[in-house]
Amino acid sequence: MSKNNAAVQIIFGLMLLTWSTVSFGAQEITYDAGERRDPFVPLNAADSAFGNTVSSGVRIEGIIYDPIGRSMAILNGKSYQVGDAVGEARVVKIQKDHVVISAAGEEKTLLMREEDKK
């Protein structure tokens, strides 16, 4: 076997070993805050419930507005487009600063508050 073939085989073997370790040896990573505050935990309940919630249980968390008509709304942690069902409600309209849903035969407007946009 030539030196080039041996080098290629060694490199290929190392790449395969690295790939298998990354792919199959993945471990869950946990954050250890130690003595510090965990930045992934809200300071208070108000921080954890951002967005505007209506009585239908739909909470607006964000809007991706597209004037062409492919806008998306982030509601209850998932993305929706006009016509999609959100539980018992349906998305009727998505604008830059609000989303209109229809729930229980009524249209309700979910407004993005200024502090939610930041």
Distinctive features:
118 residues; alpha+beta; SH3 type barrels; four-stranded antiparallel β-sheet; 2 helices; elongated
Q: Can you walk me through this structure?
A:
The protein is α+β, with helices and mostly antiparallel strands and 118 residues long. The protein has a domain at 45-116: SH3 type barrels, CATH 2.30.30.830. The protein has helices at 3-24, 45-48, and strands at residues 52-53, 59-64, 72-75, 78-80, 85-86, 89-94, 98-103, 106-111. The strands form 2 sheets. The protein has a 4-stranded antiparallel beta sheet, with no helix packed on it. Strands 5-6-7-8 form a 4-stranded antiparallel beta sheet, with no helix packed on it. The longest helix has 22 residues, at 3-24.
Task: Determine the N-to-C terminus distance.
Answer: 62 Å
Share in helix: 10-25%
Q: What is the helix tally? A: 2
What is the CATH class designation of the domain at 45-116?
A: Mainly Beta
Q: Residue ranges: pLDDT <50 for 5 or more in a row?
A: 44-50
> What is the beta-strand fraction?
25-35%
Widest β-sheet, arrangement of strands: 1-2-3-4
| String of helices and strands | HHEEEEEEEE
Mean of residue pLDDT values: 75
Specify Rg, calculated over alpha carbons.
Answer: 24 Å
What class would the helix/strand composition place it in?
A: alpha+beta
**Which architecture of the domain at 45-116 per CATH?**
Roll
- Shape estimate: elongated
